[in-house]
Protein backbone atom coordinates (compact mmCIF):
# COMPACT_ATOMS: atom_id res chain seq x y z
CA UNK A 1 0.00 0.00 0.00
CA UNK A 2 1.34 3.43 -0.98
CA UNK A 3 0.51 5.09 2.34
CA UNK A 4 2.97 2.92 4.25
CA UNK A 5 5.84 4.79 2.54
CA UNK A 6 4.48 8.26 3.44
CA UNK A 7 6.26 9.98 6.36
CA UNK A 8 4.36 9.53 9.62
CA UNK A 9 4.20 13.31 10.15
CA UNK A 10 2.01 13.66 7.07
CA UNK A 11 -0.35 10.94 8.19
CA UNK A 12 -0.71 12.51 11.64
CA UNK A 13 -1.28 16.03 10.27
CA UNK A 14 -3.48 14.82 7.40
CA UNK A 15 -5.54 11.95 8.79
CA UNK A 16 -8.06 12.01 5.93
CA UNK A 17 -5.20 11.00 3.60
CA UNK A 18 -6.75 12.87 0.66
CA UNK A 19 -3.69 14.95 -0.07
CA UNK A 20 -0.62 16.61 1.36
CA UNK A 21 2.69 18.18 0.47
CA UNK A 22 5.82 18.16 2.59
CA UNK A 23 8.87 20.21 1.66
CA UNK A 24 12.48 19.56 2.58
CA UNK A 25 15.55 21.48 1.42
CA UNK A 26 16.33 19.02 -1.36
CA UNK A 27 13.01 17.35 -2.13
CA UNK A 28 9.26 17.42 -1.74
CA UNK A 29 6.60 14.74 -1.44
CA UNK A 30 3.10 15.39 -2.73
CA UNK A 31 0.10 13.08 -2.88
CA UNK A 32 -3.57 13.68 -3.58
CA UNK A 33 -6.79 11.92 -4.49
CA UNK A 34 -7.05 14.41 -7.39
CA UNK A 35 -4.75 14.01 -10.40
CA UNK A 36 -2.08 16.73 -10.51
CA UNK A 37 0.48 15.17 -12.84
CA UNK A 38 1.74 17.70 -15.39
CA UNK A 39 -0.25 20.61 -13.92
CA UNK A 40 1.27 23.74 -12.42
CA UNK A 41 0.42 24.06 -8.72
CA UNK A 42 0.32 27.73 -7.72
CA UNK A 43 -2.16 27.23 -4.87
CA UNK A 44 0.31 25.65 -2.46
CA UNK A 45 3.02 28.27 -2.11
CA UNK A 46 4.78 29.80 0.85
CA UNK A 47 7.68 32.19 1.36
CA UNK A 48 10.76 32.30 3.55
CA UNK A 49 13.18 35.19 3.82
CA UNK A 50 16.23 36.40 5.67
CA UNK A 51 15.25 39.14 8.14
CA UNK A 52 18.41 41.11 7.35
CA UNK A 53 18.27 43.64 4.51
CA UNK A 54 20.87 44.60 1.92
CA UNK A 55 22.24 48.12 1.54
CA UNK A 56 21.19 48.87 -2.05
CA UNK A 57 17.84 47.11 -2.42
CA UNK A 58 17.06 48.38 -5.93
CA UNK A 59 20.24 46.98 -7.50
CA UNK A 60 20.07 43.82 -5.41
CA UNK A 61 16.45 43.12 -6.39
CA UNK A 62 17.40 43.43 -10.07
CA UNK A 63 20.16 40.87 -9.61
CA UNK A 64 17.82 38.54 -7.72
CA UNK A 65 15.33 38.70 -10.59
CA UNK A 66 18.03 37.54 -12.95
CA UNK A 67 18.37 34.55 -10.62
CA UNK A 68 21.61 33.27 -12.02
CA UNK A 69 24.02 31.14 -10.06
CA UNK A 70 27.10 32.96 -8.83
CA UNK A 71 26.15 36.40 -10.17
CA UNK A 72 28.84 38.90 -9.11
CA UNK A 73 27.19 41.77 -7.26
CA UNK A 74 30.40 43.69 -6.74
CA UNK A 75 34.05 42.87 -6.21
CA UNK A 76 33.45 41.08 -2.92
CA UNK A 77 29.87 39.75 -3.02
CA UNK A 78 28.35 36.80 -4.89
CA UNK A 79 24.63 36.09 -5.25
CA UNK A 80 23.66 32.42 -5.38
CA UNK A 81 20.41 31.21 -6.90
CA UNK A 82 18.49 27.97 -7.24
CA UNK A 83 15.45 27.13 -9.38
CA UNK A 84 13.74 23.74 -9.44
CA UNK A 85 10.64 22.15 -10.96
CA UNK A 86 8.98 18.84 -10.32
CA UNK A 87 9.80 16.30 -13.02
CA UNK A 88 6.19 15.94 -14.16
CA UNK A 89 6.13 19.45 -15.70
CA UNK A 90 7.02 20.06 -19.32
CA UNK A 91 9.83 22.52 -20.04
CA UNK A 92 7.30 25.19 -21.01
CA UNK A 93 5.24 24.68 -17.84
CA UNK A 94 8.37 24.63 -15.70
CA UNK A 95 9.35 28.05 -17.10
CA UNK A 96 5.83 29.39 -16.45
CA UNK A 97 5.94 28.12 -12.88
CA UNK A 98 9.41 29.58 -12.24
CA UNK A 99 8.48 32.92 -13.82
CA UNK A 100 5.46 33.11 -11.51
CA UNK A 101 7.56 32.28 -8.42
CA UNK A 102 10.30 34.76 -9.40
CA UNK A 103 7.63 37.41 -9.97
CA UNK A 104 6.48 36.99 -6.38
CA UNK A 105 9.92 37.40 -4.79
CA UNK A 106 9.66 41.22 -4.55
CA UNK A 107 6.42 40.83 -2.55
CA UNK A 108 7.95 38.56 0.06
CA UNK A 109 11.65 39.22 -0.04
CA UNK A 110 12.22 42.81 -1.15
CA UNK A 111 15.83 43.83 -0.39
CA UNK A 112 16.31 40.80 1.87
CA UNK A 113 19.68 39.01 1.97
CA UNK A 114 17.97 35.73 1.06
CA UNK A 115 14.56 34.34 0.24
CA UNK A 116 12.49 31.51 -1.19
CA UNK A 117 9.20 31.08 -3.01
CA UNK A 118 8.31 27.42 -2.53
CA UNK A 119 5.39 25.77 -4.28
CA UNK A 120 3.88 22.42 -5.15
CA UNK A 121 5.43 22.39 -8.65
CA UNK A 122 8.50 24.62 -8.44
CA UNK A 123 10.61 26.74 -6.14
CA UNK A 124 13.19 29.50 -6.38
CA UNK A 125 15.75 30.57 -3.83
CA UNK A 126 18.49 33.17 -3.52
CA UNK A 127 21.12 33.70 -0.85
CA UNK A 128 24.39 35.52 -0.28
CA UNK A 129 26.05 32.22 0.62
CA UNK A 130 26.38 28.94 -1.32
CA UNK A 131 23.09 27.04 -1.29
CA UNK A 132 24.28 23.68 -2.60
CA UNK A 133 27.46 22.06 -1.35
CA UNK A 134 29.73 20.55 -3.97
From TrEMBL:
The keyword DNA repair does not apply. CDD domains: Gnk2-like. It is found in: Secreted. Keywords: Repeat, Secreted, Signal. Pfam families: Stress-antifung. It comes from the Eukaryota. This is Cysteine-rich repeat secretory protein 38-like. The lineage of its organism: Eukaryota, Viridiplantae, Streptophyta, Embryophyta, Tracheophyta.
